[in-house]
Design a protein that fits this description.
- This protein is about 70% helix and about 0% strand.
- The chain is mostly helical.
């Protein structure tokens, strides 16, 4: 007689299986890379002075190790390309990619598509830290700005999280409202700091409006470690964010420390936000617009959303910067104004879609 297998006890439920969510596929990744390269080429070629695409390509190749080419560019054209346009394009790509990546990370932690560095107090906190450093730091504050911005970003998110938890148990709607309140308060603090230091007012005000016109190679190298660390940490947590999506109890049953994942992702997203703010100032809506579009086109798995948001955010801000410096030529629009023109109406559409699904 074959022995029968005992039925599972009600006290010991079967071990849950991880959710099956399709990850990053080659085609969307290839499309995102091509779009980013096309956007960067546009940023290098478009401007007040025309430079031949072939000459630009040869000049860039000439700076690769072991490659020697003659682009035929004059010294003035080389300076325009290598000292103005190239740092500006690289800075826009870095800032856009980090903001979009941070937005996707916040949305994964809070499971809400409206979560964004600017709605959770991270950007406002980074702005206060950077503004205080610019206004009060003796000498050149370039090296200290990212550190101060990171501390301010963490403080802003922590304050919003504490206020939301105390007021409504930590629900996503309450957390977002707390983030708006914290952002408003920190914005007032930033205005106070600006008014106290009239000598630095113009510099701070230009930074607050957002832009990458003043970016240079030394500044990008100074913040590169922060950008690299935050990017690697967030990209490595894509699968864990997918597991968090099934709920904390199920995630714990699968052997996942939900609290540890949240802390690491929040810290990395805040570091990415702080780095972006230190380089480009306050540039809004990238963290909402880009991840939402990526989810619509490539699925909801954060193994795909995070890397594609990084690439798409970089392309988006490079193109936005091209528009900022050509729309009112020979003048220039602040980059934050351009993203607000695009992101404001888009945010309303996202809000309506979220409320239609009763997500809040």
């Amino acid at each position: 007689m074959t022995p029968t297998r005992p039925a599972p006890s009600a006290a010991t439920p079967p071990h849950p299986k991880p959710p099956r969510v399709s990850g990053l596929r080659p085609v969307p990744l290839l499309v995102a890379v091509v779009v980013l390269l096309a956007a960067m080429a546009t940023g290098l070629l478009v401007g007040a002075a025309d430079v031949a695409p072939r000459a630009v390509a040869l000049e860039l190749l000439d700076h690769l190790p072991g490659v020697h080419t003659d682009s035929g560019l004059t010294r003035l054209e080389k300076n325009l390309l290598l000292e103005i346009r190239l740092p500006r394009v690289l800075a826009a790509a870095m800032v856009g990619g980090l903001l979009a990546l941070a937005g996707a990370g916040y949305q994964g932690v809070f499971r809400n598509p409206l979560a964004d560095p600017y709605l959770l107090g991270a950007a406002a906190g980074a702005g206060v830290g950077a503004t205080a450093t610019i206004a009060m730091w003796p000498g050149d504050p370039a090296a200290a700005v990212p550190v101060a911005a990171f501390a301010g970003a963490l403080a802003g998110v922590a304050l919003a999280y504490a206020l939301g938890s105390a007021a409504g148990g930590g629900g996503t709607a309450t957390l977002l409202l707390a983030g708006v309140a914290v952002s408003a308060f920190l914005g007032a603090v930033q205005t106070f700091l600006m008014q106290r230091d009239a000598q630095e007012l113009q510099r701070i005000y230009s930074w607050v409006l957002g832009g990458v016109a003043a970016a240079d190679g030394s500044q990008l190298l100074a913040v590169l470690p922060y950008a690299a660390v935050s990017t690697v940490v967030l990209l490595l947590h894509g699968r864990l964010l997918d597991l968090l999506g099934v709920g904390d109890e199920e995630a714990v049953a699968l052997g996942l420390s939900a609290r540890r994942v949240r802390v690491l992702v929040l810290a990395a997203a805040s570091l990415a936000t702080a780095t972006a703010v230190a380089v480009g100032g306050l540039i809004g809506f990238v963290g909402i617009v880009v991840p939402h579009v990526v989810r619509r086109l490539a699925g909801t798995s954060y193994r795909a959303v995070l890397p594609l948001s990084l690439l798409a955010g970089a392309a988006f801000l490079v193109l936005a910067d091209v528009l900022a410096r050509t729309a009112v030529a020979p003048g220039e629009l602040p980059l934050g104004v351009v993203t607000a023109f695009v992101g404001g109406p888009f945010f309303v559409l996202v809000l309506r879609a979220v409320r239609g699904r009763s997500a809040l």
